[in-house]
């Protein structure tokens, strides 16, 4: 795997930050102010020792504790500004990158998903995009806040002299109350975060599994808008969680600072009574400063930086992937003409043999052609080339005499409808699944007509909310036959002149198959149809049956002609009848 130089990755990340440059500068300025409070605090120790312990100047000691409180108020305010601004920028950065990754996902060619697992793609969008913030913000934050660890200093200060720890009890009840109230709010926001992340994962999972349906029905804009809404919810929730956490830290820090000011005051009182020497007090401060551990901090920054850079490289590699070809600009003829498959050759990446070996045949307009053959003979590969989910290595496909690589890919898919064995339904209502993508503006009357033609209206009417009944993820609330008829209704509503049926009646019971087959016959009427069939009995009435074997066309003809030829088709027929 190649490694992109860190400077290159940071230059690409800076492009995203340019839109938030003012807020970014405010965050940096706030970090500088927070970091400056540490040496200022150390500076205040000098008059404390000289005037309070040595010169016994009580006038100095009356305002010095208030100065310390004021210093920590400034620190708390600017720390909140820094945390909120950084979270706002990083949240928008992550949201923007996630939306770009998702848009890229919808434009990738089909063979990308052959070469990459869906889990890795999901990880890039869900996890890697979030880790990029580590590369951009953690290093700056740590450097600007170098040496700052106020709470640790206070803890060590109290540990060194247990008698002074009693003073902290004054602040503990108030701190506990604030933490309790803010923790409830944070827990609620965390629950919301889990819900939003679940919705995002679900949307992403559906889009990967349903990529073909999204593309062929023109659903890219709809899915992009849906994902953007969920991504915005996740971003807003993250900013709110950070705001609550920052408020909790600021309030706690202020109260600890008040306790610290009391500690210093009473320590000076003890010094006047010879109960606490100047040397002891200097040791107190020196030990407090020495507890700071820069090596561990720097090591942690390096780890975060490397994780962020690795995530950035993963994200940018994905964004740089080749997209679906957009070289064609010509429209298809009206009406759509014959489909010609001309000497198609194709091999999947890392495959040992070709999936297609010189496939050639013609599908006349308005005819029904069936593709049959054993599993792995190339049927699905062939029909996936028709809507250009991927292109052949050589050869061409022409529709009406025009090479489909010369056509506009969106216009090409507009002319096609797909009904497959693996029905893809989305987590919505029955109506939204029938009127999907480019057909989302269809009227309810048009949706009902499509459902009636698909033999789906009877069971839809029996559902609690009819067309507006939620069907669950991928239609889990419906039976296999019902899901198949919803897919047929979707294709009927699209009313495309070219129809692809990919084993649409397999794995159904007899009654469901009868209803689905009747709906398919209505769907195929006056359309150019290519059917992939496993059960040969379902394609006996096709105008032509194309028999494939090991990526080649070995026979073609009508059912009767192929039986009379007593070749490969007849063998398949006898095998299924046995």
Automatic annotation (TrEMBL):
This is Lipid A export permease/ATP-binding protein MsbA. It is a multi-pass membrane protein. GO terms for cellular component: plasma membrane. GO terms for molecular function: ABC-type oligopeptide transporter activity; ATP binding; ATP hydrolysis activity; ATPase-coupled lipid transmembrane transporter activity. The chain crosses the membrane at residues 20-42, 63-81, 162-182, 244-268. The keyword RNA-binding does not apply. Gene3D superfamilies: ABC transporter type 1, transmembrane domain, P-loop containing nucleotide triphosphate hydrolases. CDD domains: ABC_6TM_MsbA_like. Residues 339-575 form the ABC transporter domain. It comes from the Bacteria. Residues 25-307 form the ABC transmembrane type-1 domain. It is found in: Cell membrane. Keywords: ATP-binding, Cell membrane, Lipid transport, Membrane, Nucleotide-binding, Translocase, Transmembrane, Transmembrane helix, Transport.
């Amino acid at each position: 795997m190649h490694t992109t130089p860190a400077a290159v990755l940071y230059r690409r990340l800076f492009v995203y930050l340019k839109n938030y440059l003012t807020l970014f500068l405010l965050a940096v300025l706030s970090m500088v102010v927070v970091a400056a409070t540490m040496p200022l605090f150390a500076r205040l120790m000098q008059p404390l020792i000289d005037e309070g312990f040595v010169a016994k100047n009580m006038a100095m000691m009356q305002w010095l504790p208030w100065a310390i409180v004021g210093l920590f108020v400034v620190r708390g305010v600017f720390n909140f500004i820094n945390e909120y601004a950084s979270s706002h920028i990083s949240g928008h950065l992550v949201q923007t990158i996630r939306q770009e990754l998702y848009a890229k996902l919808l434009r990738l060619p089909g063979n990308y998903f052959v070469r990459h697992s869906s889990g890795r793609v999901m990880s890039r969008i869900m996890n890697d995009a979030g880790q990029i913030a580590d590369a951009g913000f953690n290093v700056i934050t740590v450097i600007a806040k170098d040496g700052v660890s106020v709470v640790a200093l206070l803890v060590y200060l109290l540990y060194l002299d247990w008698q002074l720890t009693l003073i902290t009890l004054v602040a503990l009840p108030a701190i506990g109350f604030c933490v309790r109230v803010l923790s409830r709010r944070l827990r609620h926001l965390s629950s919301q975060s889990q819900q939003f992340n679940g919705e995002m994962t679900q949307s992403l999972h559906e889009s990967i599994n349903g990529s073909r349906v999204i593309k062929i029905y023109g659903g890219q804009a709809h899915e992009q808008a849906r994902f953007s809404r969920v991504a915005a919810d996740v971003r807003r929730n993250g900013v709110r969680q950070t705001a609550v956490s920052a408020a909790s830290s600021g309030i706690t820090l202020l109260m600890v600072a008040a306790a610290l000011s009391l500690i210093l005051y009473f320590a000076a009182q003890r010094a006047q009574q010879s109960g606490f020497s100047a040397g002891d007090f200097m040791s107190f401060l020196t030990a407090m400063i020495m507890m700071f551990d820069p090596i561990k901090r720097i090591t942690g920054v390096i780890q975060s930086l490397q994780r962020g850079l690795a995530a950035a490289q993963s994200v940018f590699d994905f964004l740089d992937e080749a997209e679906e070809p957009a070289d064609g600009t010509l429209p298809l003829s009206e009406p759509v003409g014959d489909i010609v498959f001309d000497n198609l050759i194709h091999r999947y990446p890392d495959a040992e043999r070709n999936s297609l070996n010189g496939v050639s045949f013609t599908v006349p307009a308005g005819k029904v052609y069936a593709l049959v053959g054993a599993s792995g003979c190339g049927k699905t590969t062939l029909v996936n080339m028709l809507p250009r989910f991927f292109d052949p290595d050589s050869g061409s496909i022409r529709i009406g005499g025009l090479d489909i690589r010369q056509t506009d890919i969106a216009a090409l898919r507009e002319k096609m409808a797909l009904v497959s064995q693996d029905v893809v339904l989305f987590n919505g209502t029955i109506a939204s699944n029938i009127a999907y993508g480019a057909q989302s503006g269809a009227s309810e009357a048009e949706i009902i007509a499509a459902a009636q033609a698909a033999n789906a209206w009877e069971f839809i009417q029996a559902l609690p909310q009819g067309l507006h009944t939620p069907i669950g993820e991928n239609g889990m609330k419906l039976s296999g036959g019902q899901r198949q008829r919803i897919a047929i209704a979707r294709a009927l509503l699209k009313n495309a002149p070219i129809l692809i049926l990919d084993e649409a009646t397999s794995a159904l019971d007899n009654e469901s198959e009868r209803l689905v087959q009747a709906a398919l016959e209505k769907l195929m009427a006056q359309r150019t149809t290519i059917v992939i069939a496993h059960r040969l009995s379902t394609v006996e009435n096709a105008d032509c049956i194309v028999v494939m074997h090991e990526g080649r066309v070995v026979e073609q003809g009508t059912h009767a002609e192929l039986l009379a030829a007593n070749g490969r088709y007849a063998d398949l027929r006898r095998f299924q009848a046995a």
